[in-house]
């Protein structure tokens, strides 16, 4: 059971994360991407909403990636915990 | 010429167990439903299935190639409605195409189609890219 009081909570990464070139190369190789650049990123995740529908718990999480203090990507994920 | 209603060229990606292993290693998602057939069957799946984010990444590659690079991709979203099933020893298709839904303010909105073995695997898939 999820805690509805967690809505609005932000879980920030503690440090900037730099992916290694080999990690990036491995990921790009899988999808056939040739443009590989190392990017130090900071990540934070925020629980944006929580609701229950027909016994299913539905939680939406926004993940923000920052580089050099600028937001570069926001990704929303909606997760369902089935009843 | 790109205009509303234009259907973009189809691209077919091929997935096999080796690709799932490579993606698992690259992403850190070692959930056994993506590699272990016995486990996948035990939790009610028809077989090993591809990582949803792998499916989304491949469709994202299609979008970024059309856009001329990932920096031109402004929005991209989809729902996972069916899994891509990857039996042992087989290469399965992920067939992607897109239709231009809107052109406005220097942006192109795409409605995306992604199927595997003729089954629609992504729902409400769309992207907005710089023109």
Architecture overview:
The complex is a heterodimer of chains A (about 80) and B (about 130). Chain A has about 80 residues and is mostly beta strands. Chain A has a single domain (about 5-80), classed as Hotdog Thioesterase (Thiol Ester Dehydrase, Chain A, Roll). Chain A is about 15% helix and about 50% strand. Chain A has one helix at about 20-30; strands at about 10, 15-20, 40-55, 55-65, 70-80. In chain A, strands 1, 2, 3, 4 and 5 form a five-stranded antiparallel beta sheet that branches. Helices cover about 25% and strands about 35% of the residues of chain B. In chain B, strands 1, 2, 3, 4, 5 and 6 form a six-stranded antiparallel beta sheet that branches. In chain B, a hairpin with a 2-residue loop joins strand 3 (about 90-105) and strand 4 (about 105-115). Chain B is elongated and about 50 Å long. Classes of the chains: A mainly beta (about 80), B alpha+beta (about 130).
Largest interface: A-B, 10 and 16 residues
Helical content of chain A stands at 10-25%
Strand content of chain B: 35-45%
Q: Structurally, how many domains make up the residues of chain A?
A: 1
Structural class of chain A: mainly beta
What structural class do the secondary elements of chain B suggest? alpha+beta
Gap between N and C termini of chain B, in Å? 12 Å
Order of helices and strands of chain A: EEHEEE
- Gyration radius over CA of chain B: 16 Å
